[in-house]
Amino acid sequence: MKRLKAVSMSLIIVSLFCIQGTSFANSSKKKVDIDINQAYDLLIKGNTKAKTHRASKAKNNTPHKYKALQVAKKQINKRYKWGGDNPKKGFDCSGLIQYAYKMIKVNLPRSAAAQYKHAKRVALKHLEVGDLVFFHTRRTRAKVNHVGIYLGGNKFIHAPRRGKNVSVASFNSYWRKKFVGAGRV
After folding, report:
1. DSSP letter, residue 80
2. Which residue among 53, 93, 126, 136 is the active-site one?
3. Is 117 left (phi over 0), alpha (psi -120 to 50) or beta?
4. pTM to 2 decimals?
5. Catalytic pick among 53, 118, 136, 158
6. d(CA 160, CA 80)
7. For the chain, what percentages of helix, strand and coil (3-state, to nearest 5) are there?
8. Which of 11, 112, 142, 179 has a CA that sits 20 to 30 A from residue 55's CA?
9. In the chain, how many domains are there?
10. What residue numbers bound the domain in which 121 lies?
11. Do 171 and 100 fall within a single domain?
């Protein structure tokens, strides 16, 4: 039943954006917040009344992965800083994810590898908005050394590398080759 609800929620969210002709990458932050909350209300609560603004009870009942996603979205264009874990210093990939969850009072480990171990595994075909996506991008002993948060529409937010800012990336052939797995917190 939970799996059916999760898949249904993903489909509703994607449908909302398809119907509106928008995507996560080019829609306003406020519009995305409203649509996610509407989809959540429709699926979980059976509430078909559309919300007209964010200041509703739905915000408090929204699953934490969506809240973390909203925090992460607000960090887009913040600078990359190896070891960084806040907006003032900048972020590395795992610092961005840890910060997003810390802001909603959920504790996650600091490194991408530790976050991978902490998260519940999700198959790529069951990936949902707000799930974490893990990669192996460098020649290191660690199986996982990069992490992002999935936006839907084959896109994710991450802090890529030195010289780049926090940004949205497409789940293209490069990232698919580097993909290790996905997880849900």
Report:
1. B
2. 93
3. alpha
4. 0.67
5. 158
6. 7
7. 40, 20, 40
8. 11
9. 2
10. 64-185
11. yes
